[in-house]
Design brief:
It contains 4 helices and no strands. By secondary structure, it is mainly alpha-helical.
Length: 275
């Protein structure tokens, strides 16, 4: 009789120990399952955040690329305009040269007239004395009138020369202003291009940085997915072994690892209780 009581106590002890082990295993599996689920949720949230950041970055890059294309178009128009203005400047330069030649011709003519006036002044006394003898000029005032006409012609020539000089100086001033404005504009465009190039380099560096982070996240997710697949395979094998051992069909789907794990736990619990 005492040996039987000892056997019963040993069996009950083993049963209680196995139940505790089963409970510990179930708690461990539940904790791991909950931890794994939380990790999957955090990973999914991180993927969504990175996806949003990637879309934002792509949109920013597209807008920046559009801005660069528009700026290139503006620069092309500016270059064409500058080329046309350079051609206009050359035309103005040719006109200035032509005016200079006209002024030189007028100056030469003025010098010739002044020389003639000096030469005629030498003969003033002779003309005065010859007026009385002249059949063309009956009086001295006629001769003076003729002289006044020559002076008027000389004054007109001087005025034309002065006007030509003024026009030449105005054209030179306009040319200087034009050259300075074009130089300032070209310098401004150059500075803008340098700034845009710096911004483009920074955007490309940021894109490479996010691409590296995304590749790391994808590699980590792949490892997690592989581990999850291995766990599902182990659970499915246990589920199939239990079904084969119990010779009972289960309604749990082959795509339901949680249900399969519950089925395995239930069969093991039943077996330990029966034992």
């Amino acid at each position: 009789m005492p040996p039987r009581e000892d056997d019963q106590l040993t069996t009950a002890t083993r049963l209680l120990q196995r139940r505790r082990e089963v409970a510990e295993v179930e708690q461990t599996l539940a904790a791991r399952k909950e931890d794994f689920q939380m990790r999957l949720e955090r990973l999914q949230q991180r993927r969504e955040e990175l996806g949003q950041k990637e879309e934002t970055l792509k949109d920013a890059l597209l807008k920046f690329d559009k801005f660069l294309k528009e700026n290139d178009s503006k620069q092309s128009r500016a270059v064409r305009k500058a080329r046309a203005e350079r051609n206009m400047a050359r035309q103005k330069d040719r006109e200035i040269k032509q005016l200079s030649q006209e002024i030189a011709a007028l100056q030469a003519r003025r010098e010739r007239l002044e020389g003639k006036v000096k030469e005629n002044a030498v003969y003033w006394a002779y003309l005065v004395s010859a007026t009385d003898k002249s059949e063309k000029f009956q009086e001295l005032r006629e001769l003076i009138g003729r002289f006044d006409t020559m002076l008027s012609t000389r004054e007109q020539l001087l005025q034309r020369e002065s006007a030509g000089q003024g026009r030449l100086e105005e054209e030179k001033q306009r040319l200087r202003r034009f050259v300075k404005e074009r130089s300032d504009l070209i310098l401004q465009h150059s500075n803008q291009l340098a700034t845009l190039q710096t911004q483009l380099d920074q955007a490309r560096a940021l894109a490479l940085k996010w691409e590296s982070k995304w590749n790391h996240i994808q590699a980590t997710a792949a490892k997690k997915t592989l581990l999850l697949g291995q766990i599902k395979v182990v659970i499915l094998n246990l589920f199939q072994m239990v079904n084969k051992h119990t010779q009972q069909d289960s309604e749990v789907s082959i795509e339901d690892p949680e249900g399969q794990l519950d089925r395995v736990s239930a069969v093991l619990n039943a077996a330990w209780v029966h034992e």
